[in-house]
Structures are given as C-alpha cells and as structure tokens.
Amino acid sequence: MKRLESKFEHILFSSRWLMAPVYFGLVLALIVLLVKFGKEVFYLFDHIMTATGGEMIIGVLSLVDIALIMNLLVIIMFSGYENFVSKMEDLHNHQDRPDWMGHIGFSDLKIKLIGSIVAISGIELLKAFMNVDNLTDRHLAWMVGIHITFLASGVLYALMDKISYKSH
User: Fold this and answer.
1) Are 23 and 85 in contact (CB under 8 A)?
2) Rounded to whole angstroms, what are the CA distances from 83 to 16, 20, 60, 76, 78?
3) 78 contacts 96 by C-beta, under 8 angstroms
4) Region 117-144: what's the mean pLDDT?
5) What's the rounded Cα separation, in Å, for the pair 39 and 47?
6) What mean pLDDT comes out for the span 38-63?
7) CA distance 82 to 105
8) How far is 70 from 43, CA to CA, in rounded Å?
9) Cβ pair 121, 146 in contact under 8 A
C-alpha cells in the first residue's frame, strides 16, 4: 500500500507540469499584445498631425494600458512557473534576471494582480472620461462602479494579506 501511495504522490507531483503549456500560452498572448501595441503606435504616428490632443492622450493611455497588461503577464509567467512548476535554476545568476524573480509568492502575486487590475481599470476610466461626450451616464456609472469594486477588492486583499501575515 505504501508503494501505491508513493507512486500516486509522484504522479500528483509531476502533474504540475500540466501548467507549463499554460505559461507558454501566456508567451503567445504577449506576442498578440505586442502586435496590438505596434498597431497602436503606427496609428498614433499616422494621425499625429490630424488628431486632437485628447485623441493623442487616449492613444498614449492605450499604450500604457497594453504595457501594464504585458508587465502583468510577465510577472504571472515567471512567478507562476517558479512557484508551481519548476525553479529556473540556470537563470539564477543571469545578469538580466529581475530582482523580484523567485521572491514573489502566491500571496504577493494576488496583490500584484489586483493592483494591476485597478491600474488598468483606472486607465480605462480615464480614457472614458477623455471621451465623455460619446458615452452615456449609465455607461460611465458602470465603469466607475466596476473600478470602485476593483479598488475595494484590492484594499480587502491587502488587508487579508496583512492579517494573514501577522497571524503567522
């Protein structure tokens, strides 16, 4: 029976590698976002002489939005892979290795995720307010409500994390 239990535990432990294709899928998502970023940059330069200041600001905010999402994906890929699949031992001494790699736990990842979502939501809300003439009050109210929900969720996550950290 002990041998069967040991075999099961090895299979269970090895199953973490099923997550590897998920992280590779996020690499593909980075490529998709890079193409979208390039398209936005091309659009901005193509309309640099005819666009209004507001349109340029919205375009730049879109670029920031994409960059934040891409940064978030990199954090999720690296920390998720190292926390749940395998340590990147060969890269520990790499000169370009980010300082945070290997130090972000699941709790830290949740806080970074909700923080990024709040920032992205804030940028989307700012873009909406820059284009307020084309949106209904109801649409804006929903956007503000959703942003406040994300913000409250972020504060509650941080509070729960702080309480959890103190209890350990």
Assistant:
1) yes
2) 10, 12, 34, 10, 8
3) no
4) 88
5) 12
6) 92
7) 9
8) 20
9) yes
